[in-house]
Design a protein that fits this description.
Layout lengths: L1 H6 L4 H4 L2 H13 L3 H9 L5 H17 L2 H14 L3 H20 L9 H10 L5 H16 L1
Helix pairs in contact: 3-4, 3-5, 4-5, 5-6, 6-7, 7-8, 8-9
Length: about 140
């Protein structure tokens, strides 16, 4: 209900407000529209507010099992700040994305899901990424 009401606001000054973006993103995520929350982030400049929006998207998506969007968000966070916390989130979200793909749960993962997940892991500088990549590639080879 909140998502619907927020979408009715057309005033650019309100829609560009950071607090509005955070609340709308959270509403999208918890209404099953995590991709729309990601799209809010994509339209933002690289500001501290955009960074906090990205953290909200990553953590809320992870919390509700929208692992693909969480993986993309944690990947972006890891690129902006190589904190181990973001790698751990990315690692868990990639594993969750693969689990959702295997169990055919609603995932929002693109058609080439396993390839997309592998691409995110390949971009990581963390030493644990290689072990995950081997496991994911092994699984992908069973699909052919």
């Amino acid at each position: 209900e909140a998502e619907e009401l927020l979408m009715q606001i057309h005033n650019p000054q309100i829609r560009n407000d950071h607090t509005f973006s955070m609340i709308l993103a959270r509403c999208h995520i918890h209404s099953g529209n995590a991709e729309q929350a990601w799209n809010i982030f994509v339209t933002k400049d690289t500001t501290p507010e955009a960074f906090s929006l990205l953290q909200l998207i990553a953590n809320d998506c992870y919390r509700i099992g929208e692992f693909w969007i969480a993986a993309k968000a944690f990947d972006m966070l890891e690129k902006m700040d190589p904190s181990p916390e973001y790698w751990e989130g990315k690692r868990g979200a990639c594993a969750g994305s693969l689990h959702n793909l295997i169990t055919k749960k609603k995932t929002g993962i693109p058609p080439n899901g396993i390839g997309e997940i592998i691409s995110l892991l390949r971009d990581s500088s963390n030493s644990q990424a290689e072990a995950m990549l081997r496991a994911f590639r092994r699984y992908a080879s069973t699909l052919k």
